[in-house]
Design brief:
The structure is a homotrimer of 157-residue chains. By secondary structure, the first copy, chain A, is of the alpha+beta class. Chain A has one domain: Nuclear Transport Factor 2, Chain: A (Roll). Chain A has a six-stranded mixed β-sheet. At the A-C interface, helix 1, strand 3, strand 4 and strand 5 of A face strand 3, strand 4 and strand 5 of C.
Amino acid sequence: MMSIEERLDIHDLFADYGTCLDEDRLEEWLELFSADSSYKIVPRDNYDLNLPVTLMLCENRNMLRDRIVSLREANQFSVHRDRHLISNIKIKQSIESEFLVTGNYVVYQADREGSGSLFSFGFYDSTIIFVSEKPKFYSMMVVVDNWAIPHMLSTPI
Amino acid sequence: MMSIEERLDIHDLFADYGTCLDEDRLEEWLELFSADSSYKIVPRDNYDLNLPVTLMLCENRNMLRDRIVSLREANQFSVHRDRHLISNIKIKQSIESEFLVTGNYVVYQADREGSGSLFSFGFYDSTIIFVSEKPKFYSMMVVVDNWAIPHMLSTPI
Amino acid sequence: MMSIEERLDIHDLFADYGTCLDEDRLEEWLELFSADSSYKIVPRDNYDLNLPVTLMLCENRNMLRDRIVSLREANQFSVHRDRHLISNIKIKQSIESEFLVTGNYVVYQADREGSGSLFSFGFYDSTIIFVSEKPKFYSMMVVVDNWAIPHMLSTPI
């Protein structure tokens, strides 16, 4: 059984997840993951068919950190800004101190001229653990419904 | 007065509602309704003007089950997949053990090639009861803001 | 430290905020603000650069009331209807009895023919106080990501 505080804290974790990405605070976003965590982005079709091909794969947090460092070097001036809406967060199961949590997302992007459009939607399939009483992502799989987007690969979703 | 657990459980019910539809688990979705429940989809204009015309009307759960069975037979291969975002969930009133609950929704659809777009948005106007301590929809009215969509009639929203 | 009730009540405040706007209950929406509250709408670029230019500025609730009265007189027949999705609500800080709360939003609009589209997205940056145990907005800044929209100025978001 999980407590009400844990339920609400898990919701807050997803709010932080989105906000850090939206505000381009990627280093802070990294802190939402546990030390031995994994992160990947998968097209919905591959997820349904259990195919191993990913759009992004970081098997541990160091790989994720490398990715962020190279993003910082490549994108001196980011052209688009993200806006995450995350809802339907559901704690499906808690096995000992591990929580299986899903949620749906949509991301909009605006350019520097203030024009915006739908960028991506799909769902999060995550495992969350509590480290020093704070929730952290132990694994995060982003499953993208509209995966046919050319510039999707570069940044986390 | 309702308890915090009841408030959170009602939020979870809406998360399940969306996820079951998104994952095409329609039979499981049906279990979110009480035995004597009703389900209808109404264009926003008709709702505002109190007109009786609906886009879908199931006056009890058997009708809803029939609808799902015929969907299964008609759509051997579903062309689109849904993604529900549900937010602004508000328990407006609780009369004895009945809760009047509203929420806003948006549904995106992706096709098999991974192209996605906005499908529908509007709100839910529902009555929820607790059966064996689990929340169930006793009535669900989906009010569609953008009702001028040709292929809207076939599936639940 | 804030209580669980306060956390949930703040979530409800945002649900009410969206619903009042969506249902064109602007006078009721005004009641969600404290007597000495401020309201403004800011383009994301100006927010980031700390520029003072706003899209709408009401420095107290009377100014906001005036705005609503003039909206009522100007728009006898509103052409568009809004639908707010608000998520990622996060209570970032509580200083004595003041809560700093952010949230992301997207607004869709439908016209009278039932055609709908994305209208605006961005985030809320608010201060919330409790007046007679009910949460009220003491300040609300709406930061618009896609600010290049010609008809954005007229109504609250």
